[in-house]
Design goal:
Blueprint (H helix, E strand, L loop, with lengths): L13 E2 L4 H9 L3 H13 L3 H12 L14 E2 L3 H19 L4 H24 L9 H24 L4 H65 L4 H17 L10 H15 L2 E9 L8 H16 L2 E9 L3 E7 L18 H10 L3 E6 L5 E8 L7
Parallel strand pairs: 1-2, 3-4
Antiparallel strand pairs: 4-5, 5-7, 6-7
Helix pairs in contact: 1-2, 2-3, 4-5, 4-6, 5-6, 5-7, 6-7, 7-8, 9-10, 10-11
Length: 386
Amino acid sequence: MPLLERPPLSRPRDVMLGGVCSGLARHLGWSTRGTRMLALALAAAGGAGILLYLWLWALTPLDAPAPDEEPIVRRRIPAAAIAAVLAGAGTIAVLALASTNDQGLTTALIATTLASGVAVAWSLGFDRHDPGRSARYGLWVRGVAVGLLVVAGATALLARPSALNAVIGVGMVVLAVAFVAAPRIVALTSDLDTARTARVREEQRAEIAAHLHDSVLQTLALIQNRAGPSSEVARIARAQERELRDWLFVGDDPTVADLATELRQVAAAIELDYPVRIDVVTAGDSIERSGSAIIAAAREAMLNAARHAGGDVSVYVETSQSAIDVFVRDRGPGVDLDALPSDRLGIRESIIGRMSRAGGTATVRPGAGGGTEVHLHLDGPAGGES
């Protein structure tokens, strides 16, 4: 008979302490409770179970998180609080043995030091990333551990003279000071690692951007120039160039879209649907103009140029605190407003009528070198909101 395929040895992310027994039971097909009882029995047998548990904990990987799940581990046993309670029991023993038993006092001091160290280390290393442990809980655990260390260390220094107890007492006071500074050191180390990682990523992104700019982007620009702005090849090349630039320079654009940014986004969307190349040039002040009538009128003018003229379309935007002017020029056959049928409302209503209702003006006239020029004018940066 073929052997049953066992699941891989890995630790779950919802665990009691480390997930070793759960992962081992799942891998071997045992019950989780029986595996935990076996681990406790081995721990009582000279500490072999503890070493085995720590070894498996260090070498067994965690389960991969689900696509919509955060990569965190939830622990049900409050190990840091338990260690703090054990440190409290050790401190009580230190107070009880302070003037009676040097050997017992030394053992109690060492136990208190270890328990306090485990409480602080667990709080900073594991509970800091556990959503079930609040920041207040971590402060409470670390505060109790530090207080117990100070009390036990001071008791050792004031007990019957003993070189070993004095050394341990001084060491405990020093550790207490280190535990107070430990959260700040951990935060600084984390910030340093984050800044170093961000700097490395930024340098890699700059190298990739420089390489792609010198190769792929220039090739796409050459394809556009050779194919002509009205061809399908040029349209695809321009769309790919724009997507590649957006990916390379993500985060460089302003977070608040101004008039020029919105017009460029409109031009990019039109270029995806029509064989046209729209160049947007701006001059003057940066003015936030999200959702304004002049955006809608300029979009209609660019759409008309793309549908009826194609080729190259230029958009010139001039802004100031007193007025906004947008010029849309194409190189098509031109348009005669008087000759347009009465049911053609694109220019009359979507451009001229919209600007008039917004308190501005729209002029449609033949271009200087042929084609059509649409001039949109709006007084004041605060006018024209639709």
